[in-house]
Sequence to fold (717 residues):
Amino acid sequence: MAVKALYDYDFPSADRIENFGDDQLVYVHWAGNPLFCSAAAFRAPRATPFGEFVAAMVQPWAASDPEFDPASIAGWQLFDEPLAADPQRSLAELGIGHKSLLTFRTA
Amino acid sequence: MTEQTTLRPVGIDLQESEENRALIDAIKADNPELTVRHMPGLVKLQAAGQIVIKRETVEARLGRPWETGEFQLAIVSYAGNFSEWDDDQIIVRWKH
Amino acid sequence: MSLTERPPATSAPAKKLPVKQRYSLLTRDLDWEPSYVNRADLYPYTSYEGIVVHDWDGWEDPFRLTVDAYHKYQSEKDKRLYAVLDSFAQSQGHLTLSDASYLNSIKLFIQGVTPLEYAAHRHFAYLARYLEGPAPRFAALCQSIDELRHAQTQIHTISNYNKYYGGFHSWSKMHDRVWYLSVTKSLFDDAMSAGPFEFLVSISFSFEYLLTNLLFVPFMSGASFNGDMPTMSFGFSAQSDESRHMTLGLEAIKFLLEQDEANVPIIQGWIDKWFWRSYRMSALVAGMMDYMLPKPVMSWKEAFELYFEDQMLGGLFPDLAYYGITPPRHVQDAIAEKDKLSHEVYKILHNFSFAAAFTTSTPSDDHMAWLSAQYPDTFDRYYRPTWEKHRSVEAGGGRVFFQGLPQLCQVCQIPIAFTERDDPTRISFRHSEFRGETFHTCSDGCQWIFDREPEKYVQAWLPVHQIYQGNCGGPTVPDVLAWYGIQEGDNGEYAGSPDQQQWAEWHQPAKGGN
Fold:
């Protein structure tokens, strides 16, 4: 249903990928850890290798939980699909697009 | 005057104050089935179907002339419809 | 008869006109048909929403206020209120609060709610010009002045606390910038950027009637229970205006429904949207009621059952069924959440108060016992374990905060922290695609709202995304907090905060022998 208006109601989205240069937004959810109220939002270059993304951004955030053990991260998902999270491949190469939701569990 | 078509409860919340004692007494007198609940600073009135406030009854208990407009100083909240409000009475009820 | 004697009265004092007649003479009868301006040019906003009105004179105002009566009653209310504010300030009444931590609820109030009063003042002034009938225009004018009064009296009431406690100083600036305040700001911006009829359904009806008790009574009763006499007095003073606002909201709904059958589905859609938007905003009140009051009044669950389920679903909606209106679309989700909402919201505030202009604390044993009794089906099983983990970290000298930024809902702008109806351990993620871009929402309700008007919500100023675009002062947390206007002592953990330390000093046992 289009917005009712007295004029042509057509405006650009506030968070379109063009606003982030070579970067994009990614959300990461630690499934099964209620210490975190929600998923975290990150801004990262699309060309970042996945392993670097996890080490530089996800792990420091996950360490908000004093019991976090980086070695225990397992079972990545991209939205509802399992993700073969090759640490050498970039976010873009893995199909992790702008504003994707990643989920991991810990063993 | 529209007929009373439902007995669903209507409610009025009034400020608990010295001045409102007489008002509450008057409403009790004109609405025999009224329930009155006291909470901090607040008096919750409830009755099935409708609540009537009559100027003459209020004046008799207050001991001075009273305008129905003064009710605005007493009210905190209500559940229902103001179906009548003139110089002599106020009626709160549901329309349907 | 001497010159000093008064002549006998020859007649009774002149009677005032009856209320109905005075009202008519001073409102409707002052209206006129434009003769040198086209009516459509004079009122350009009342057609484009698709709402049809055949007869504006059908609008009824039971309060039948006139300007003189308005002035008389409102001045009286102000006099009574300011007497209380003065007395409280003069007697150092703040020292009789239950605890300084109580004021975190009032910080949330002045930052989140007071600016909405001001926004309402502005928009009702616009309605006082652009609605076509004199009766609704005058009711809108009274409400505009009422809302300005509410903003002013809240500011005066709460200014006393600003002298002694953190977090109050920059509420207006924070409302425009700070992440959790975009929740309340965006709700009103959504309403103000809609048409006049949608605004009436969103604010006058959904906010000021359907949910008003749920939004305001917890703050005011919380004030009463915790020794906050000024806020409680403000609440009573404002509530008598609110009964007029409720009436305007109810009259608006009924008037529009009665004017034309074509209006019914449009209004139903707005009720569905605005119940959910206002309900999501009320989540902040839920967290406040259950977690931020040293002396709690009642649980969110109990308040929701009383003020919404009983009074509205049980009382109002059967009344509206006459017109073909049904209860709001996602109301069952709200009912299903009542054992979870406050806990999930307070987790957000507790995780992020390092970036807020208030402090939070892990609940004490006594507090958890109360929560357990109020929420026998959920608290011990789903929420206590997390609070106990926080307690054990704190016992070791630490304090867990979310070291990052949250994922926000595109519509309600709250972090996506609510859970699936049948599983409190699973966050309810939803997402939609629009013009090739992904947008996340927190619930079926918010997703439905997004999908209905995506062109509007894709423009949302989401605080987290704006920080990442460099629009909030800088890349680091201290940069952002400075841009927010948050000062040392405003934020973080309550234990050890300046508010808590001062409170302890001021409440040392009196010295001196006996």
